Amino acid sequence: MRYKHISQKPYCCVPASISMILRRRGIKPPSQEKIAYELGVILPSDQKHLLPMSYSGKKPKAGFGTRINLKKYSLTSFFKKHKYPLKEHYVPAVKLKTERLFSGFIRKNINEKNDQLICFNQYLREDKKSWGHCSVITKIGEKTVTICNPDPKQKKPQRVSMAKLYHATKNHYEGGIWVISDK
């Protein structure tokens, strides 16, 4: 599936990814800031100026950023509010107990033309930082997954090891895959 890369604003990996998904489906998305606000983005108080239309406060267990794990800020609520004919189905990484199940799940959804938003621990990157991050899954190979990563440094699709992505997804507090479909 083809996605046009959209660089994220601070704390907006989910909103940028949702923008990529909506654009692929021919839907003009609201601004990242509006999506972020509607998905409950929360920032440290000293960084609220980065996204004036945001919440600030204590760091949630899943980290600063959107709070799509809460019903009030879920993707389903966002889609309903905007009357987008889309549904989300969240599968936590702990339910995909093996790398083989993880890989099979991704492959099945790609074959069904469903969009997949994956949340993983940022130490997938070489810098070893441990905050969460989201990207859009675009392609699957034998032992690799290609993601469209909204990180401004990643302008091209990024191919990552299946094993590394599986590990990084399982090691994030809210790690998992949000399947977005029109069914």
Q: Would you give an account of this structure?
A:
The structure is a single chain. The chain is built from five helices and eight strands. By secondary structure, it is α+β, with helices and mostly antiparallel strands. It has one domain: Cathepsin B, Chain A (Alpha-Beta Complex). A six-stranded antiparallel sheet has the order 3-8-4-5-6-7, with helices on both faces. The protein has a two-stranded parallel sheet with strand order 1-2.
Lay out the secondary structure.
Elements: H1 13-24, H2 32-38, E1 42-43, E2 55-56, H3 75-81, E3 87-92, H4 99-111, E4 115-121, E5 132-140, E6 144-148, E7 158-161, H5 162-170, E8 176-181
Parallel strand pairs: 1-2
Antiparallel strand pairs: 3-8, 4-5, 4-8, 5-6, 6-7
Keywords summarizing the entry:
183 residues, alpha+beta, Cathepsin B, Chain A, six-stranded antiparallel β-sheet, two-stranded parallel ribbon, 26% helix, globular
Could you list the spans in which at least 5 consecutive residues all have pLDDT below 50?
none
| Tertiary shape | globular
Q: Count up the helices.
A: 5
Which class best fits the helix and strand makeup? alpha+beta
How would you concisely characterize the structure shown here?
Helices cover 26% and strands 22% of the residues.
